[in-house]
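Question (not urgent): is this output format expected?
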Amino acid sequence: MAILDTETREIETDLLIIGGGAAGLWAAIRARDFCPRVLVVDKGKVARSGASVHTHCVLAPVTEDKIHEALEEIVVEGGYMANQRWAERTLREQADRIREMASWGAPFRKDASGALYTAKDRKQVVNNSVYLLGSDMMDTMKAHARSKGVDFMERVAVAELLTSDGQLPTRGSVVGAVGFHTRTGEFYVFKAKAVIVCTSLMSAELYNAAVNNLTGDGHAMAFRAGARLSGMEFGQIPNFPIVNRKVSTGHPAVFQLYGAKLVNNLGEEFVEKYYPGKTLQLLSRAEISYAVAKEALEGRGPIYFDMRHWSDELINEWRRVLPSMMKRMDEAGIDMRRDRLETMPRVGSWGGAAQSGIRIDENAESSIPGLFAAGVAAHVPVNIIDMTGVSQAVCYASGYRAGEVASQRAAGGSQVKPLADQVNRLRAKVFAPLRRESGIDFQQIYLSVGKVTVPAELSFFKHEKRIKGTLAELGRIQQEEVPRLKARDVHDLVNCLGSQNLPLLSEALYRCALARLESRFSHYREEFPYRDDINWLKWSIAENSGKGMKVSFESVPIETYPIKPAQRTRVPAPVQFTFKETVKAAV
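Got this back:
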């Protein structure tokens, strides 16, 4: 094929940022204050690729007198698993980030007096959110980044990181990356003094609502290079946006906020049964999904959202704020003023609120020198409770910090030339699916992985024997199916690149789930149906040892934080369910 014969194009920059969402653009904007050459590379279009473009709100600024109270809400609701230094930084800096964005013309919603409009969103009692249209916000950020001299390269898929010693995993530092143009197949070698990964979350599906390119590229390339991943067992976030088996809304929070009823097929509202004293608004996606799953598994499904009592004014407001969701509803013939909306839980995005990802320190640097991460590609344990708006705030805070520190390092550092042998090896690996005369389609990987990760007994309600069965099958997929991936063209090659990340990152998730002997957030173990703060206030770490995947844990330094539990206890999981076949391997 002609594309395999294209010459390698070399690009030299001070700072390479992979991913053009909110975190990537904040990193780029801040980086230009310290170094002259900042390049953002995106496999789609900057400001249109990833998840930020689909957001509708962000955590509101917090006044100084409310910082401690707002921090306490995040920490306590998050079971004391938050990194309180990152959480406090996010709360303190959010006002500055929003003020800057407003000065660029970002379209924040205003009240009648012209001040920022704020309101409570999912899981918020003390905290608030401010509202805006994600696509307009991203356009504003892109324009400002361009005005500051940030360079963009679009439709270039970054596939692997380059290292100073030419090895993956490395004992040296990250010195760049390789990738290819998603239309022409032109091969790129990026030489950089520092790299920031801002590639958003990982989806377990080919199409996750309106986003279909969240394939864990950053997580996987960082892991292969030797960077640590953290919190992976919490990354498999159950969700409930399937409506009438026709539409994936992508915006489940909005069902919770305005008095929607969640009922089973007997017409019973069941949330109070599992979470006494809590309204639907104060529950995370995972908490709701577990309750919905149990109701259905025990024979009380289907489950419905009932919004037939809502006003036309409210529904019209949705049309303004969430036009893509309402358009899909209209196309499916769904009228929420007339119809109850059947919903079903599913395994959705993985690591969607920075619960899991590339482990970073307080300077947003990974465990490998020269490699930084920001946004929901990084493990910034702040939004473990899935509070609406916090994930965007994390993108702002971690992107800003990563851009600041990485660019200062780059400005004072020297260029290290990548090793030609590593470049050649990675080029051969990237284009291998195009060279094969026969093989399997990338969709086969998604189907194979889905069979052993999506069913409720393998995702919502885990058990040691079933986890081991899943791990055995994930190993087989990586050994037997991934090496047989065949691409028909360059577009297919992009899909092959994404699909091979899924079994690898799934392995990290299930190995960490096997090691964590408790139930917490979106991680549930039938044998340990309780949150154990006595033994498991710990962050998991998965890393590439060079001979396989190694899992360890690091204790949350709770004694050094301002907010501490009065005592450590074991708390029963509000929703408990046991499959009768737990004595068998399910795969």
